[in-house]
Structures are given as structure tokens and as C-alpha cells.
Design a protein that fits this description.
The chain has two domains: 126 residues, Substrate Binding Domain Of DNAk, Chain A, domain 1; 149 residues, Alpha Horseshoe (Serine Threonine Protein Phosphatase 5, Tetratricopeptide repeat), CATH 1.25.40. Helices cover 39% and strands 14% of the residues. The protein has 15 helices and twelve strands. A five-stranded mixed sheet has the order 8-7-1-4-9. The protein starts with 10 loop residues before the first helix and ends in a 25-residue tail after the last helix.
């Protein structure tokens, strides 16, 4: 492994981490594997055996398997998992070459863990120290994400994967079943026809991220046309539905879910995480009534976004075709609502300060005319209802 430097670490902090920090013992990880913890990653060298001096708490261990040199030595898709480490804990894993994954079953063997603990001093030269210089950044990106929430959101398989594990929707296990399928001997006349001929795929059960489901219908059953229009302009009903179904006991956990999705995308390379992050953000930024009701949730949202947006280039959100910046249009709505009537004074001031910060740092224009984007109110003829 390339050297993991603990330079500039305060001696007292280093001593405390040495005494209280957790240890990841990772045996048999192939040379050249890209392995990281939290916001930093490295290429594994021939002497690597794990990471020491890890601050107790929640971390994201991630790695990309590498093919053998005879197969080109190519790096595979990234996968990772959230782990919660206790003071002085030893977490042991062995590399499974068949699955190209870490097997943590040895950690359940107390005898094996105790053996490692007794020989830890001999193992120490082969353990790299946790990159403490990224700790502040990691905490700022996950301060709302609890161990329980992280484990409830990550797949049942225990792995967050950059590429989805998909299987055919229809399992044709027998020759007779496959023979009865229509043959595709003729050439395709279009790309659409070719795509239609491909077998329909679905994500393997247990590998999907367990995000909150954002309702497609933003209005309550039996809503009148006027109510439908109102709920399309103010997404508070949809937001309250998400909170009630997923975070009824702890509404602020929605911020933890926002952080989980962002970390999965930023560090785990999971595009689904980015899409969910965008959907959650759009939902929260366009919920006017909820903004008046959930002051703490929105104060927290500003703090979460402050740190997240510091990790992404300002032009990242610009659509290549339309040149539309998703984030500026979404936050434009947020700032307009956060400075409207009935908004708590503290939230209003914090929103104005955040707007000034983003305008200065990214040169984003939040004061463009919104009239062109105003929703059109549709009045249905008398007696006509919308289901």
C-alpha cells in the first residue's frame, strides 16, 4: 500500500488514536486493489494488512477489485460498506478471490480475533494509520447519519455497489422454456427494436439501496383540481408523506438519508445515490408549508448542503444539452420560499446568508426572473374530476 501519512497530526491525538482507535485487519487483499476508507483511497501494496488508529464511529470502507496482471490488471467496479467501529475494536476480514470481495465472517470467531489481538504488535508495521487529515471532512458529510440509519438504508446484501447486480425478469432454467421463446433471426430495423428484443432485467433481490420512496402523486386521494394545483406548486403533502412513512419518529433523519445518498454517489460512485439526492432536494426545496412547520429540518438542510456543495465543481449540475443548472433552479425556489411570509426569522437569516455565500463562491444567479417558470393553473370543466 502506498504510505498512509499521519503528518501534521497532533501528538496527543496520535497517542489517543493509538490507544483508543479501532483496527481493520484485511488479509489477502490483492496487490493493486484500490482501497479506501471515508474520503481517501490508495492502491494496495504487497505488504498491506489493514488500517489502524481508526477513530471510533461510522465509516465507509470501499474497494475496487483488480484483475491479475495476466488478465490486464484492470480495476473493477467499486463496492463498499458502512461499518461502525468501537474503541479498540478489531474487525477482521479475509479476501475471497472467487467473489472478489471481503469476507468478514472471521470477525464472528472470538478465538480468531483474540489471536489477531495477541499478535497485533507483530502486525503493526503492515498496518497503515487512518488518514486523520480527512476526518473533519468525513464528519461534516455524515454528522446526521447514524449507524442505525446507515444500516437500514444500505442493501440487505451489505454491499453498496457502483454497478447494479441485475438478473433476467423471466428465469428460463429449462431447455424447453428457452425453446418456446420467439426467435430473433431477422435483423433489427432500429435501435429501439434491438433494445426491445433484449431480455427484461431486474435488480437482484437484496442488492438494492433501501431509500425512502418519493410518491409520484403529490396530492391526496380525492383532491379537487384546485388542490391538485396547490400540491403541485407546494410539495409539502408529498414531503409529509415521506416523513410519515419513513422518519415519523425522527424527521431529522431525512437529512441523514440525504447524506447517505450523497456519500454513496461521491465516494461509492453509485449514480442511483445522486438521483435520489436530487429528488430529495427538489422535494424539500419546494415544500412551502413544511418550511414553516419544520424549522430545524431546514436549518439542518442548509448546513448539510453547505458542506456537500464544497465537494462538487460548480459546473457539475449544468445539463450539457439545455445548459440548465438543476441546483440553481432548485435553490432559487428554496430561497424564494425561505424569505416568504410566515418563515421563522432564524431560518430566513440563515437562508439569506447561505444564498450570499453561494453567489459569491460559485457566481450562481438566484435572482433571475421566475415568471417564465411559473406553473400554469388548469381549470377543468364542471363535473370533470381527476382520479
Amino acid at each position: 500500500m502506498a504510505s498512509i501519512s499521519s503528518t501534521n497530526m497532533d501528538p496527543d491525538v496520535a497517542r489517543r488514536l493509538f490507544e483508543e482507535g479501532a483496527t481493520l485487519v484485511l488479509l489477502g487483499v490483492p496487490r493493486g486493489t484500490e482501497l479506501g476508507i471515508d474520503c481517501k483511497s490508495w492502491q494496495v501494496g504487497p505488504l498491506f494488512r489493514g488500517v489502524k488508529m481508526i477513530p471510533p464511529g461510522l465509516h465507509f470502507l470501499n474497494y475496487s477489485p483488480v484483475n491479475s496482471p495476466s488478465c490486464g490488471g484492470e480495476i473493477g467496479p467499486k463496492r463498499g460498506l458502512f461499518i461502525n467501529l468501537k474503541p479498540r475494536e478489531i474487525l477482521l476480514a479475509n479476501w475471497d478471490p472467487k467473489e472478489e470481495d471481503l469476507d468478514f465472517s472471521a470477525s464472528k470467531n472470538d478465538e480468531e480475533v483474540n489471536r489477531i489481538r495477541e499478535t497485533l504488535q507483530e502486525l503493526d508495521p503492515y498496518l497503515g494509520p487512518y488518514p486523520y487529515e480527512v476526518m473533519r471532512k468525513w464528519v461534516s458529510l455524515t454528522d446526521r447519519l447514524s449507524e442505525e440509519l446507515a444500516f437500514n438504508l444500505q442493501p440487505l446484501s451489505g454491499r453498496v455497489c457502483a454497478f447494479s447486480d441485475v438478473i433476467p425478469e423471466v428465469q428460463l432454467r429449462h431447455t424447453k422454456d428457452r425453446a418456446e421463446q420467439p426467435r430473433n433471426d431477422t435483423a433489427c430495423q432500429s435501435m429501439k427494436e434491438g433494445l426491445d428484443r433484449l431480455p427484461k432485467m431486474k435488480q437482484r433481490e437484496g442488492t438494492e439501496l433501501r431509500f425512502s420512496v418519493i410518491p409520484k402523486q403529490t396530492y391526496p386521494p380525492g383532491a379537487t383540481p384546485a388542490e391538485i394545483t396547490q400540491c403541485s406548486m407546494d410539495l409539502s403533502y408529498a414531503l409529509e408523506t415521506v416523513l410519515e412513512k419513513n422518519h415519523s419518529q425522527q424527521p431529522l433523519n431525512l437529512l441523514g438519508e440525504l447524506q447517505f445518498a450523497f456519500v454513496c454517489f461521491l465516494i461509492g460512485n453509485v449514480y442511483e445515490g445522486f438521483e435520489h439526492w436530487k429528488c430529495l432536494l427538489a422535494l424539500m426545496c419546494r415544500a412551502e408549508e413544511a418550511m414553516r412547520k419544520h424549522k430545524e429540518l431546514y436549518l439542518g438542510l442548509i448546513a448539510v448542503l453547505y458542506h456537500q456543495l464544497g465537494e462538487i465543481p460548480p459546473d457539475f449540475f449544468v445539463d450539457i444539452v439545455s445548459q440548465n443548472n438543476f441546483l440553481t433552479t432548485t435553490l432559487q425556489d428554496f430561497f424564494q420560499l425561505a424569505t416568504g411570509p410566515g418563515i421563522d426569522g432564524t431560518l430566513r437569516k440563515r437562508a439569506e446568508k447561505f444564498k450570499t455565500h453561494l453567489t459569491k463562491k460559485f457566481r450562481w444567479d438566484f435572482d433571475a426572473d421566475l415568471e417564465d417558470c411559473a406553473p400554469v393553473v388548469v381549470e377543468l370543466p364542471e363535473g370533470v374530476t381527476v382520479d
